[in-house]
């Protein structure tokens, strides 16, 4: 049924309410940023502060080096995140939209304990001018938290097609609340065809005394349809899998790369053991599709299978955000032990 069967052990009891549980969301953020921005423009936003203040920056395009340059000068009167200490630790982050996954993010250094940070840094994108002119610049300001629980402080979005490129001066712009179109916008990234199955503890026959009885989750990634075509030749795609809250190498699995195909067939099965029935309400299977290139991999879309409660072992986490379709798929698996549950799920930004 599949070209590859990968089996790994997953010990959930290590992740229950312990002092270190809060680090799981930051682990996810670090994995994501290193591998090409799994998370969306608003990833990791734990804050509820209102956007305020201004940001000063200038835009330029270096024709000789074919480079888009954003000179981030400073911010003024930013919102205070930690009211008890009266502090914010702000930094500026940029994306080119809608191609944020391919171009990746850029960000400044973090300035600590200030609502009036001075950066004087240049963020650079190597990009052809004609491609740049069909993009929008999203520039946002964030409070940096040591545990990765970053807070959104405001943003500005600029349509680069209508930008006055003779204007190279530093100008002040008011920071605005996040745009509803960016938060709620639905963009078609493709559809994943997969099956999942839960095998409860003790249903596989006798268990070795050295290994306590535990259940298994089987994930059969069959194929993906209508992926984003990043190059004329198509896309070289593969699928990554984690079972959150574990983002360690033990949890990480991936398929082979299917080249030059926007409708890749993977036929890859992954088996995670170490599951107890009660773990199913706190775990989340994250499947993400990537375009493979030599220097970096580009995020194409993903799904998260879980109950979507926002909680994992009693801790608030941003990755427990399954859609209604994803939740229904997971619930059906939980209620039909030892049966393959098949589904077609749309890929989305995570």
TrEMBL record:
Which example biological process does GO assign this protein?
Answer: exocytosis
- Listed GO CC annotations: exocytic vesicle; plasma membrane
Matches recorded under CDD domains:
C2A_SLP-1_2 (cd08393), C2B_SLP_1-2-3-4 (cd04020)
**Primary subcellular site in the record, as a coarse category:** membrane
Single GO molecular function: neurexin family protein binding
The answer to keyword Cell membrane applying to this record is yes
- Residue ranges annotated for the C2 domain, each copy included: 51-173, 188-320
Which keywords does UniProt give here?
Answer: Cell membrane, Exocytosis, Membrane, Repeat
SMART domains xrefs: C2
Keyword match Membrane: yes
**Tell me, what's a Pfam family for it?**
C2
UniProt-annotated location(s): Cell membrane
SUPFAM superfamilies from the xrefs? Answer: C2 domain (Calcium/lipid-binding domain, CaLB) (SSF49562)
What name does UniProt use for this protein?
Synaptotagmin-like protein 2
- Organism whose genome encodes this protein: Pterocles burchelli
